[in-house]
């Protein structure tokens, strides 16, 4: 069974259709990158996968269940945003443990999972700090750690590196690739950056104006782009 299936998914805001019939299968453990220019609908698609936004028509199915049929607390999904979205009044430890606490986990479970995730990301020295006492790169590592703590089957990343400087972008990208190998989870990763797409993806989905232009492995898109748009975005120079 696919980890994620989109069947003829559309989304309109008022009369404006921003997602115009998207079909997609993502396999368990796959690293799938959505790439496309600003405004093409990447975040909207991701938010529908997360169940944060209703589809106008079509179905989003995760592990065989329609996302909106599963209670939010039971959806094994974690999302990492460009803006980190940490709680300013909570320490790193409490930010990371909050979702488990809300799900009713015991103190021992929460501290075990928090220690493990912070070990994977080198966050132990920061556990008692608050977000205001962290750099941008550290905040994003906490946001990623918070996602890992819940041990989701599906990770959704929405341009997680765009607020970081160039050196941190590379370091964090490498860290995300390592986490994908270690966790074996399915990951959907949105970016408008070709290099991120080419280096991280098992499968790239090229979006343009709410439609899928092409889906394929990075080198297949690079060597054999379906059209000039895909070529301009990731293809080899013609
Ligand atoms: P991307 O993430 O690829 O930059 P978005 O998914 O954010 O694109 O947006 C796709 C289109 O949908 C844009 O034209 C945007 O203005 C529009 N849009 C997104 N969210 C809303 C909303 N809540 N209300 C109206 N229009 C929206
Ligand atoms: Mg976006």
TrEMBL record:
Protein name: Sn-glycerol-3-phosphate ABC transporter ATP-binding protein UgpC
Source taxon at top rank: Bacteria
Signal sequence bounds: none
GO molecular function: ABC-type maltose transporter activity; ATP binding; ATP hydrolysis activity
Domain ABC transporter: 4-234
Family to which the UniProt record says this protein belongs: Belongs to the ABC transporter superfamily.
Keywords recorded for this protein, A-Z: ATP-binding, Nucleotide-binding, Transport
Keyword ATP-binding: yes
Gene it is expressed from: ugpC
Cellular component, GO annotation: ATP-binding cassette (ABC) transporter complex, substrate-binding subunit-containing; maltose transport complex
């Amino acid at each position: 069974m696919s980890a994620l299936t989109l069947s003829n998914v559309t989304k309109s805001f008022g009369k404006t259709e921003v997602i115009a019939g998207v079909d997609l299968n993502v396999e368990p453990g796959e690293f799938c990158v959505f790439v496309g220019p600003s405004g093409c609908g990447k975040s909207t698609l991701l938010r529908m996968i997360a169940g944060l936004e209703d589809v106008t028509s079509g179905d989003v199915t995760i592990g065989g269940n329609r996302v909106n049929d599963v209670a939010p607390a039971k959806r094994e999904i974690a999302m990492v945003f460009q803006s980190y979205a940490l709680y300013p009044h909570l320490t790193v430890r409490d930010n990371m443990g909050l979702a488990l606490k809300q799900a009713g986990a015991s103190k021992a479970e929460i501290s075990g999972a928090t220690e493990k995730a912070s070990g994977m990301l080198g966050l132990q020295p920061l556990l008692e700090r608050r977000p205001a006492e962290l750099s941008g790169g550290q905040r994003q590592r906490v946001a990623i750690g918070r996602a890992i703590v819940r041990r989701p089957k599906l990770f959704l990343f929405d341009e997680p590196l765009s607020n970081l400087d160039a050196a941190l972008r590379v370091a964090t990208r490498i860290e995300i690739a390592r986490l994908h190998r270690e966790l074996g989870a399915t990951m959907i990763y949105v970016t408008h950056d070709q290099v991120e797409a080419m280096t991280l993806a098992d499968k790239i989905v090229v979006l343009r104006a709410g439609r899928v232009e092409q889906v394929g492995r990075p080198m297949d898109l690079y060597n054999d782009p379906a059209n000039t748009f895909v070529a301009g975005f990731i293809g080899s120079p013609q």
